[in-house]
User: Which sequence fits this backbone?
């Protein structure tokens, strides 16, 4: 559970929400809902209080100085403006530091999850992943692209299902147009 997590407080608040929308929190089907939501929030927001240094601590000395790309990483997060989900895919590319040390491929997915499991906006999530790779690994270049559908746009407000928001963050040598183009071509390949 995240630091400061108070499941009982969430349960009480969710009971009030049910009353506030005109429901009976004591009717069959809703009796356990506040407790279920509290448990779900513990999982959904489990990235709070966690830092990327733990995720990216383990590296391997393989003297690699070319791109490393993990694409199509599932992303599930909660919009901090409406506490509604957004979901999609993350593509994370980096060029290792001069020493050629790399991190485990699963660590890139774990890094995305760490930041996604917080109240979030897609733009910040994209930036946080990119900055962590530079700050923690000393990556010489980073490209992070997120493609997500936001429930706050699809089930309320403008109600435009299927609309996708794309954000990117580019750092270091991947700002070079040719290198960036190579990385982007690998991301969109076979689509």
Assistant:
């Amino acid at each position: 559970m995240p630091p400061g997590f108070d499941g009982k407080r969430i349960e009480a608040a969710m009971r009030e929400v049910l009353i506030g929308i005109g429901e009976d929190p004591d009717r069959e089907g809703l009796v356990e809902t506040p407790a279920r939501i509290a448990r779900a929030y513990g999982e959904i927001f489990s990235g709070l209080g966690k830092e990327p240094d733990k995720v990216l601590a383990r590296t391997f000395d393989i003297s690699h100085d070319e791109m490393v790309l993990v694409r199509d990483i599932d992303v599930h997060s909660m919009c901090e403006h409406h506490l509604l989900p957004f979901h999609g895919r993350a593509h994370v590319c980096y060029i290792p530091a001069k020493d050629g040390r790399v991190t485990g491929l699963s660590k890139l997915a774990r890094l995305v999850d760490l930041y996604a499991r917080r109240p979030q906006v897609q733009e910040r999530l994209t930036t946080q992943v990119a900055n962590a790779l530079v700050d923690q690994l000393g990556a010489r270049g980073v490209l992070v692209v997120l493609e997500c559908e936001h429930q706050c746009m699809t089930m309320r407000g403008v109600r435009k299902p299927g609309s996708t928001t794309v954000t990117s963050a580019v750092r270091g040598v991947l700002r070079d147009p040719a290198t960036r183009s190579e990385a982007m071509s690998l991301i969109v390949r076979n689509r």
User: Anything to note?
Assistant: The chain has a mean pLDDT of 96. Helices lie at 7-20, 33-44, 52-55, 105-116, 122-137, 151-154, 177-188.
